[in-house]
Every structure is written in structure tokens, then in C-alpha cells.
Design goal:
Chain lengths: 110, 881
């Protein structure tokens, strides 16, 4: 694991990966699509509030950056806050993955 | 609304994003199902809000305890809070006093009303226990009352016909011990414990105890008697009490549980013995012509869904058990009248039976206490808000120096926690004293079901509510301060107030005034009502007299009973200081009156049915009942049971409207009686019960229990001689009860007096609280307006104009409060309308009086600080920052 990469909690990793997946699939990663990706891929119910709080916390840590789209009538005239993963986040994700792979070595048969 | 809630729970941009996402998804779902989309939207929003609120609270608690409430060090929040409170002693003492008052009030009121209003009766499935009340359908028998006595033989006759239910008969007697001590006892049958489900500490009745030839009667004693008389002896079972006057030997076979009691109320019955009556009660002769003496109340245990069925079964049992129903047109003999079968029965729930008198009174007490508690809490909230207002500049300075919201909130909470803790301790100390004062004021006969005792749940509830109110208001006020720019309060000093906080202060004043007005109006209405009652004329001598109850050890036949009553009355008249004395057959002013057994004249108004009073020689003179027409019966006529009647004015007007009542006749079961006199109406039931009319007649044999004795001076000096004269005239006589006529009249309106005392005490407390609350608030606001007032004086304002300015500023809130209080009173006052006497709920004068009291209180509370403000030195005021 890179010494400069920030340590990530399990749910934070999942949210970052969900942001990447949502950006890939729907081109817009925001609260709704990130929550949908999480539930679809993990096949378990995820608290909506947890997703929003984690997105906000990751943004404050600098692992996500957000931008606003144009307001729409469907959103009651409010802009959509979309997220994209930053380079430090990608580095942290890669470091976490390397650490997990290293720990799993020799345990595949179990 | 959702967005506003989310903004409260997280920062604005996140709240905006979440609200937008929810809106978007609702829009998408609405294409499929608009209703489902709306349900999803509100459900998801609520779940989100709960989640965010829980996280926020968790963070706040972690923040709070991460820094901790340090007691030591120059930055310790608690030390700082103590210092801050010491700098404002009046505020601190007032806040502590208000919280202590709310605690003590809540605890003591709850202790009194708990047994009647909230706590279930101490029996297994108490709602299933009912009293059986006999009903007479025609106007020759007594009208149904809540309780009608039943004889053991009658009860067994019903049981034979209603085999699916279990009946038990509870009578009342007494048990005498060797040392002369007498305790009240209940007389029971073998089904008593099963029907009531009474808990026993040890022992109990068995079937063997109820065999007829058992020479020693079994007795179960109360826990209190076991402790006080028998020293909680563990070997109490089997102990035999020796025989006494008309009392066989008694064997103690059981002890009741500590909380167990049997109607009518705890503490009045200390023992329960097997029934015994003149007629063999337990194995009645089916061919007997009458039921024997009615001595007790029948109780039955019935599930709610079987009430109608059991009532019908008992009605059928009543019909089937009439051995001596007279043929149509025949009159009952006097003995049959006493044991005449009922026409039907009603089942009265035990809870209603026990608390008929107490429930309305205690409900009023509890409701007014709740109102006062609301006022106290509003007062505490206003004090907390004013305190936060006062510290606005300090909050702004600390924010500027880097204090976080949590730090500021922690400081405010530390202060409130100290105040609440001190108030709670003081309240807990004061509560037993306040409860003792309340219990001393309550009449001894009031049935509270359980002994009034401090309930820690009530204490905890009161403490939590006081704490939550004070802390919530303080937190809100700090939040108001934090939300606005820090610069404004710093630059403006104490002169700047957030508009929302000003509004909150005015709402709190208006709220206090509103609740206070409703309480004061209640107090004025009850006081006015009680005053009207006291102005009523009872119709009998209302001072320097006494009612004596005399008991004999046997049941004499009528001629003997009449003669011995006359002899006692004559002996009383011989006592120096006794002006007159006469016997009569039932107690006066005890909310009970026997209906007259005379048929109303044909075509006359029969409702309400007049009451009857059987009297002996000397009664009219002793009671000083005014004669309006005709004459009173002579001593000879009364002694010989002559068929002459004296009727009261309302009976004469109702039975013979527009005609002369003298010479008219009324018929009872046997013969015609002639009216020889008309007297003033007498309020024989109670001072606040409209007289239904009274028919006075010579005794029919049941006389001898009561004597009306009039004194020439103060009764205290003559009574001992009168009591001795009774014993000399008849050594077998025992005086069981002595009541001064003033006490008897006062006790007849006891529920009304209790309600009035409670309502007026709470009204007085409301006046004090309103005055204190306004005093504190106006003092605070004028304190931080010192500079402004200095400017006004410099510009030519006079002390009078400043005084008017300060007073009129509060006028808006006071008038708003009176308006709100009037609406509250319009809703609440009709609820107590039935308890008022001689006055309507919307009678103008009490309302005007209440408004005047509120305005005067508000003026008083605001006047002193306003006067101080008008006398401030302008030079010093201008230098004030």
C-alpha cells in the first residue's frame, strides 16, 4: 500500500467504486445513481442517508469533487450535484485493492 | 417542508441536492403511480430525516463528551456556569424556584389522584367486579340508588336462579376487643375472596369455616391491624378472640396482603367475619315469607361481554324469588315494605361505585394542576429565553474568538442542567411537605383508593419535562444567536435582539397570560359558586346545635323504640344549656334522603319525589323549622303515631297547586294521613342540593337513631353534659357520632369545597407566577435598554413617558394572552359547568373579574422594573454599553 494514499473505510471504498460505476454506466454519478449502483451490485439494501453522508465526507476529504448541472423542473428547479473521483481517490482505491489481494494470497482454497 | 427539515439537519448545499434527488425520483415514479409516488416520497423523506437526525445527535454527543464537562481548570464549563449563575442571583433563584414548584406540584397532585384516576383497583381483573343494585319500578318504593342493600337470604335466592354467576354479599359490622377497642368490620360469605380476588398474606377462609353449627366464627384481619395490634406475629393464625357484647368468639384464620383492601375504602375496614344476622343467613328456608334484614351489598364478577346476559339472569332470579308479592291493590305490611322484592336489578361497575363522589372532584384538581404546570413550564421557558438574550453579546464575542456551536451550546446546557438539578432537589424535598399539607386539607372521608404516596415515576416525569423545556428553550435561543452574524451583537452591545428571539419572548409572555387567565377564571367561578352556596338557607337551625347518632345493642319493636327515643329527648331537654331536642330517623346533610312512601295525589306532579323524615316530639323546636301555614303535631300525636303530616312548601305547591294544602290527605301502604301544617323547605340532603320537598310524619318504629339538639350557647360547653344525660336515660345507649350543625352543613358540600380550594389555590399560584414571570422579563429587557433610555432622556423624554413606554410595550403581549386565554377558557369552562352552583359558565361578572385580575397582575409585574427604568440616571445610561 502506498504510504501517501489515504486509508479508506469499507463503505467509503464501496461508494467510490459505485461513483466510478455510475459514471461509466449512466455518465452522471449523483446520489440516486450511486445508491442504485450500490444496491444493484452488492445485492443488499443500503441506507440512502449513509450514501449522501459518505459522498459529502469524501468530498470534504478531497477524494471526490462535485459539480452542479443545470436545474430542471423535475427536480423542483434545483440543480443536480454530480460527483467524479479524484486522482488521490484512485490511488487510495488501488492501494486498498493491492492490500486486499496480498492478504488473500494463499487463502483462495479456503 | 422537506427541504427546510433537511437544512436543519445538514448543510444547505447537501440538503438542496438531496431534496432535488427525491423530487426527481418522485416525478419518475408518478408516471406509473401518482399515489404510490407520494407515499414513497414521504416515507423516504422521513427515513432520511431520522437517519440524519440520529447521526447529528450522535456527533453532538461525541463532541460533548469528547471535551467533557470539566469541573476543574479556568475553562471548566461547570465552574463557568456556576460563576455565571452567581452573578445573576435573582434569575438563578427564580428559575430554581419555578422548577422546584413544578416538581413538587406534579409529585404531590399525582400522589393524591393516582388511585382514583389512573391506578387500577387492586383486584384481579377489577373491571369485571360489579355491585348489584335493586330497582323499584313504581313510585311506592324507593327510587334506585347506586347501592341497595340486600339480605343474605335474598342473595341465596338469586344464586339458586342464576347458577352460572357467583355472587357474594358484603355487609358492615364491628369487632370489639377485650380492651374496649372497636374496629369496623365487613361481614362476608364463602364466595367473597373468590369474587374479589383479594390477595392474602397468609391463611384465608375455607368451606369448613362456613358450616352453620360452627361455634367460633372465622375472621380475616387487615395487614395494618396485624401489624399494629398483633405486632406482625407470625403465629397469628388460629388465635381466638374471646366473646364480647353480642359478639361470639372469633378465630383469626387469615391476614390480608399489604395492598389489599375491600370496599368502601382502605383503612376503614380492618376485619372480615362470616355473616350473621337475625335470620339464619346461610341456609335459608325456601318457604320463608320474607327475605330478612337487608344488611349488605351484593357483588358479582362478570366478564364485559356477558353483562347483559347476567343482568337478564338476575332479573329473572328477582322475579322468581318473590314469595310474598302482594296482589294488586293490596298494601304491603311494614315488614314486607322493609324486605319487599326488587322489581329488577342493575349492575354498577365497582370502580364507579367507589369513586362516584371523588372522581369529578379529583378530575378538576388534576386538570387545574396540569394547567398550572403548563404555566410553570412557560415561565421556566421565558426565563431561559431571557437569559439567552442577556448573553447574546458574550455569545457573539466567543464565536468571534473561534468557539464552535457545540461549545456555546454546551455552556448553555451546563447552566440549565445546574438549574434543573438544583430545582429538582428542592422540589423533591418540598414534595412530601406539600403532599402533607394537601392531605391535611382533604376531608377524612375522601376515598383515594390507595394511600397517597410519592410516586417516583411522577417525580422522574416532572423532572424530565422541566429539564426538556428549559434545555430546549436555551438551545433554541443559542441557535438563534449562532445563526445570525456575530458582528451585530458585538457592535450593538446589548441593544440588539434577533427578531425571532423577540417574537419568542412575546409568545412566551402571551402563553403565560393565556394559561394564567384560564386558571384565574376557573378560580373566580368556583369561588363565586361556593359563595352562592353559603348564602343558601338550609331551612333548619344552622348554629349552636348538634346532631347526635345513638346506637342501641338490640332491635326494639316500634312502640319500645319510640318510647325510648322520647325518653332520651326528654332527658336531653332537662340538661342546662339545652334549648330543645328531638329524635328523627335519618342523618341530615349527608347527601342521602329516604323518599317518602306516600302516593302522590291523582294528577299531581310526581317528579321529583319528596323525601320523608320520621320525627319525634321536640324535633321541630330543636331544628327551628319555620311554620308557614297551619300547625305542628303535638307531642301526643307524635308519640301515638297519629296519622298527621307536615309538608314543606314545595310539596304543597306541587301536590295541590293553587289550593290549600291543609286538610288534604296522602296515603301510604296502610292508611290515609292528613296534612296539618306547611313549613319552609329544608335542604336535608346537602346545602347545595335543591330541596325536593319533605314530608314530616310521626315515627313508624324505625326512629331512635338521631337526635337534633339545640343549645342556648356554645355547644362545646354543654355537649359533655348532654352525652352523659343520654347514658343516664338509657345505659344501653351508645353515642356513635356527634356532629356540630355547622360542621354537618359544611361537610355536605365537601366535594364543592375541595374543588374550590384547589381551583382558587391554583389561581393564586397562577397570579404569582405571572407576576414573577413578567417582572423577570421586563427587568431583563429594560436592563439591556439602559443606553436607549439614556438617549431618550437626553432627547427630552420624561420619567412618565418612559414608564408608559415600557408598560405599553408589554400590553400587546398581555392582550394577546388574554385573548388566547379567553378562547382556552371558552373551551375548558363548560367542562366544569355542572360543578358550579347558581352561576353560569358565561356569567359576565366572573369573566370581567378575571380580566381585571390578569391586567392588574401584569401591571404589577411590569410596574416595578418599569419604574426603575424611568428613574435611571441619563448620564450613567449614556455611558452604558
Amino acid at each position: 500500500m502506498g504510504r501517501d494514499a489515504q486509508p479508506l473505510g469499507e463503505f467509503e471504498q464501496m461508494v467510490l467504486l459505485a461513483v466510478l460505476c455510475a459514471a461509466q454506466e449512466a455518465e452522471e454519478a449523483y446520489g440516486v445513481t450511486v445508491h442504485a449502483e450500490l444496491e444493484r451490485r452488492t445485492k443488499r439494501r443500503v441506507a440512502r442517508g449513509a450514501v449522501y453522508m459518505t459522498l459529502d465526507r469524501l468530498e470534504k476529504k478531497g477524494l471526490l469533487e462535485s459539480f452542479l448541472t443545470a436545474p430542471t423542473p423535475e427536480r423542483g428547479g434545483r440543480a443536480k450535484r454530480c460527483y467524479r473521483v479524484t486522482k488521490p481517490a484512485l490511488a487510495a482505491l488501488r492501494a486498498s485493492r493491492r492490500a486486499l489481494v496480498a492478504l488473500w494470497e494463499g487463502l483462495e482454497s479456503r | 417542508m422537506v427541504e427546510r427539515l433537511l437544512r436543519w439537519l445538514c448543510d444547505a448545499s447537501l440538503a438542496d441536492a438531496i431534496a432535488g434527488d427525491l423530487c426527481e425520483q418522485r416525478h419518475q415514479r408518478a408516471r406509473v403511480s401518482p399515489g404510490g409516488a407520494a407515499v414513497w416520497y414521504w416515507r423516504t423523506s422521513l427515513g432520511l430525516a431520522i437517519y440524519l437526525a440520529a447521526r447529528r445527535m450522535g456527533e453532538a454527543m461525541r463532541n460533548l463528551f469528547a471535551h467533557g464537562f470539566r469541573f476543574g481548570g479556568h475553562r471548566g464549563e461547570l465552574r463557568q456556569a456556576i460563576r455565571s449563575l452567581r452573578r445573576t442571583p435573582w434569575y438563578s433563584l427564580t428559575a430554581i424556584g419555578v422548577i422546584a414548584l413544578s416538581m413538587a406540584l406534579a409529585i404531590s397532585v399525582f400522589a393524591v389522584v393516582d388511585g382514583v384516576l389512573f391506578r387500577p383497583l387492586p383486584y384481579r381483573d377489577a373491571h369485571e367486579i360489579h355491585a348489584v343494585s335493586g330497582v323499584f319500578d313504581d313510585d311506592t318504593g324507593p327510587p334506585p340508588r347506586i347501592v341497595r342493600l340486600t339480605s343474605p337470604r335474598e342473595r341465596h335466592a338469586w344464586q339458586r336462579n342464576a347458577t352460572e354467576v357467583r355472587l357474594t354479599l358484603l355487609g358492615y359490622s364491628s369487632v370489639a376487643f377485650e380492651d374496649g377497642d372497636i374496629v369496623r368490620a365487613g361481614t362476608v360469605d364463602r364466595d367473597f375472596l373468590a369474587v374479589f380476588g383479594v390477595r392474602l398474606l397468609m391463611g384465608g377462609f375455607t368451606a369448613d369455616h362456613f358450616t352453620p353449627d360452627r361455634p367460633i366464627r372465622p375472621i380475616v384481619i387487615s395487614h395494618h391491624l396485624w401489624q399494629t395490634r398483633f405486632g406482625s406475629a407470625p403465629d397469628i393464625l388460629g388465635r381466638v378472640l374471646p366473646p364480647g357484647f353480642l359478639q361470639p368468639p372469633l378465630e383469626i384464620v387469615g391476614v390480608l396482603d399489604r395492598d389489599g383492601f375491600v370496599p368502601p375504602r382502605p383503612g376503614t375496614l380492618d376485619a372480615w367475619v362470616r355473616h350473621a344476622s337475625r335470620v339464619d343467613a346461610l341456609f335459608p328456608d325456601p318457604s320463608a315469607a320474607d327475605f330478612g334484614e337487608r344488611i349488605g351489598t351484593v357483588f358479582v364478577r362478570v366478564a364485559s361481554d356477558r353483562l347483559a346476559e347476567v343482568e337478564a339472569a338476575l332479573d329473572a332470579a328477582v322475579t322468581a324469588s318473590r314469595p310474598a308479592a302482594p296482589l294488586s291493590g293490596q298494601a304491603y305490611t311494614p315488614q314486607q315494605q322493609e324486605s319487599r322484592p326488587y322489581d329488577s336489578v342493575d349492575l354498577i361497575p365497582l370502580e364507579r361505585l367507589l369513586t362516584t363522589r371523588e372522581r369529578p372532584v379529583l378530575s378538576i384538581v388534576f386538570a387545574t394542576a396540569l394547567g398550572l404546570l403548563a404555566l410553570v413550564l412557560l415561565n421556566a421557558a421565558a426565563l431561559a429565553a431571557a437569559r439567552a438574550q442577556q448573553r447574546l453579546r458574550e455569545v457573539a464575542v466567543r464565536r468571534s474568538l473561534g468557539a464552535r456551536a457545540g461549545d456555546l451550546l454546551r455552556q448553555a446546557l451546563a447552566e440549565q442542567a445546574l438549574l434543573v438539578a438544583a430545582g429538582a432537589v428542592l422540589g423533591l424535598v418540598a414534595a412530601p411537605w406539600l403532599l402533607d399539607v394537601a392531605m391535611r386539607r382533604l376531608p377524612p372521608g375522601l376515598n383515594l383508593i390507595k394511600p397517597a404516596a410519592i410516586d417516583w415515576r411522577a417525580a422522574a416525569f416532572a423532572g424530565l419535562v422541566s429539564a426538556a423545556t428549559s434545555i430546549a428553550v436555551a438551545a433554541l435561543a443559542v441557535r438563534f444567536a449562532i445563526r445570525h452574524t456575530a458582528l451585530a451583537p458585538m457592535l450593538a452591545g446589548g441593544r440588539w435582539r434577533p427578531p425571532a428571539q423577540v417574537r419568542m419572548g412575546r409568545w412566551l409572555v402571551a402563553g403565560q397570560i393565556g394559561v394564567g387567565f384560564a386558571l384565574i377564571l376557573g378560580g373566580v367561578l368556583f369561588l363565586t359558586s361556593l359563595g352562592r352556596v353559603w348564602r343558601e338557607d338550609p331551612g333548619v337551625r344552622d348554629r349552636d346545635a348538634a346532631i347526635l347518632r345513638v346506637m342501641f345493642g338490640d332491635f326494639a319493636p316500634p312502640p319500645v323504640a319510640i318510647a325510648r327515643a322520647a325518653a332520651i329527648a326528654a332527658a336531653l331537654r332537662q340538661v342546662p344549656g339545652v334549648a330543645a331536642a328531638g329524635a328523627f330517623d335519618q342523618s341530615l346533610f349527608q347527601n342521602a334522603a329516604s323518599p317518602a312512601p306516600f302516593r302522590a295525589p291523582t294528577g299531581a306532579q310526581t317528579d321529583p319525589r319528596p323525601s320523608a323524615l320520621r320525627i319525634g316530639p321536640g324535633f321541630f323546636q330543636a331544628a327551628a323549622i319555620q311554620v308557614l301555614q297551619g300547625r305542628l303535631p303535638s307531642d301526643a300525636e307524635l308519640a301515638s303515631n297519629a296519622p298527621v303530616l307536615v309538608v314543606s312548601k314545595s310539596v304543597a305547591e306541587r301536590y295541590w297547586p293553587g289550593r290549600n294544602a291543609l286538610g288534604q290527605t296522602l296515603r301510604d301502604f296502610q292508611r290515609d294521613w292528613t296534612v296539618i301544617g306547611v313549613v319552609r323547605d329544608v335542604r336535608i340532603a346537602a346545602l347545595d342540593v335543591e330541596p325536593v320537598g319533605t314530608i314530616f310524619a310521626a315515627s313508624s318504629g324505625s326512629i331512635g337513631s338521631f337526635f337534633f339538639v339545640a343549645f342556648e350557647g356554645r355547644s362545646a360547653t354543654v355537649l359533655p353534659s348532654a352525652l352523659a344525660a343520654i347514658t343516664r336515660a338509657n345505659p344501653a345507649a351508645r353515642v356513635g357520632q356527634v356532629r356540630r350543625i355547622e360542621d354537618a352543613i359544611a361537610q355536605s358540600i365537601q366535594p364543592r369545597r375541595i374543588s374550590t380550594i384547589a381551583a382558587s389555590a391554583f389561581a393564586l399560584a397562577a397570579v404569582v407566577l405571572m407576576a414573577v414571570g413578567l417582572f423577570g422579563l421586563v427587568a431583563q429587557t429594560t436592563g439591556w435598554r439602559t443606553h436607549e433610555l439614556g438617549v431618550r432622556f437626553a432627547l427630552g423624554a420624561t420619567p412618565g413617558s418612559v414608564l408608559r413606554l415600557v408598560l405599553t410595550e408589554q400590553l400587546g403581549a398581555v392582550l394577546a394572552g388574554i385573548t388566547a386565554g379567553a378562547f382556552l377558557a371558552l373551551w375548558a369552562v363548560p367542562l366544569v359547568g355542572s360543578y358550579l352552583y347558581g352561576i353560569g359558565t358565561y356569567d359576565v361578572r366572573p369573566w370581567i373579574a378575571a380580566i381585571a385580575i390578569v391586567l392588574a397582575t401584569a401591571a404589577l409585574g411590569a410596574f416595578v422594573p418599569a419604574l426603575r427604568a424611568s428613574r435611571v440616571d441619563p448620564v450613567r445610561a449614556l455611558r452604558t454599553d
